[in-house]
Specification:
- The chain has 328 residues and is an alpha/beta fold.
- The protein folds into two domains: 2-98 and 294-314, NAD(P)-binding Rossmann-like Domain (Rossmann fold); 100-286, Rossmann fold, CATH 3.40.50.
- The chain contains twelve helices and twelve strands.
- Helix 5 (97-116) packs across helix 8 (158-169).
- The longest helix is centred in the N-terminal third of the chain and has 20 residues, at 97-116.
Length: 328
């Protein structure tokens, strides 16, 4: 059996370290593990690979892999793998949602607290060497408590569930929408509705957190009309995919103070272009797709990969299996 690891990215942390392959060889001595740093020429390695650990594959690369039975993505989102050559074949796709969920949820809570306590403004005043107690108090929305506030979750997958648990622990009311609200969430005190209730969720929420996958139904989900349904002091937080939000409409709503603020970790185009109007909006907190960053990232990845590999060898159901008909 052969595993091909091809995880290329310009950002160092997203690249699979060489010790991943070394440790797999040590723990699974009967398996051939090949790790490549670039996609050029991988068709030769794909020819006899049964497992691929990768962000994406082109159609011709999948066609060159007749033995491929399982693809694991080290990302939570798998839209790059949802091509006909994979969807229409008997290839299991898994993702790393459980790896990123707790870490991204911590980032969301940090964003909620930062917006509630006006920390971005405090940093700006600090850079000016200004003791801005009066200014912070007069800003809208004013510094506030998160206990008792309503957090609305769009999406209740591996990230959404972790966010809900942490928000409830802070004393927040948590409401959520998901594709199948009848599925048990396993979290008490959580109010769950179907996607048709998104406008009601937006109208009630003090903080709206986008944690839904990118699909044809969620693309541009938050447009000018939906932004207008939010409370004027509410804040939008996006840790999903930038394409869920109409960025121009959001920038305009923030400039006009139709919203209390936003915290964005993902964008339609990354890196966010210098000409984006979002850079010049004061009441937006921008992080460079860093919500999942943690020094323990690849340790967490390895634990999931190794557990799933053991299951794969035993013919058992894998963890984090993607429903290819839905794309998540």
């Amino acid at each position: 059996m052969k595993i091909l690891i091809i995880v290329y990215h310009r950002f160092e942390l997203w690249q699979a370290p060489t010790w991943i392959a070394e440790k797999l060889r040590a723990e699974f001595p009967g398996i051939e593990v090949v790790q490549r740093k670039e996609y050029e020429g991988i068709e030769q390695d794909l020819r006899d690979a049964e497992v691929a650990i990768t962000w994406s594959l082109r159609p011709e690369q999948v066609r060159a892999a007749p033995k491929l039975r399982w693809i694991h993505s080290p990302a939570a989102a798998v839209h790059l793998l949802m091509i006909p050559e994979i969807v229409n074949r008997d290839i299991t796709v898994t993702n790393a949602g459980s790896v990123h969920g707790p870490v991204v949820a911590e980032h969301v809570i940090a964003q909620v607290l930062a917006l509630a306590r006006r920390l971005p403004s405090a940093v700006r005043y600090q850079q000016q060497r200004k003791w801005a107690q009066d200014e912070l108090w007069r800003e809208q929305p004013r510094p506030r408590e998160v206990a008792g506030a309503t957090l609305g979750l769009v999406g209740l997958g591996s990230i959404g569930r972790e966010v809900a648990q942490r928000a409830l622990a802070l004393g927040m009311r948590v409401i959520a929408i998901r594709e199948h609200p009848e599925k048990p969430a396993g979290i008490s005190a959580l109010e769950v509705s179907g996607p048709e209730q998104i406008d009601a969720l937006l109208a009630q929420s003090d903080y709206v957190v986008l944690a839904a996958p990118l699909t044809p139904r969620t693309r541009a989900l938050i447009d000018a009309g939906r932004l207008a349904r939010m409370k004027p002091e509410a804040c939008l937080i996006n840790v999903s995919r930038g394409a869920l939000v109409d960025e121009d409409a959001l920038a305009e709503a923030l400039r006009r103070r139709q919203l209390g603020g936003a915290a964005l970790d993902v964008f339609q185009k990354e890196p966010l272009p210098p000409g984006s109007p979002l850079w010049d909006v004061e009441n937006v907190l921008i992080t460079p797709h860093s919500a999942a960053l943690t020094a323990k990232l690849w340790e967490r990845h390895f634990a999931l990969i190794a557990e799933n590999l053991r299951r794969f060898l035993r013919g058992e159901r894998l963890l984090n299996v993607v429903d290819k008909s839905k794309g998540y």
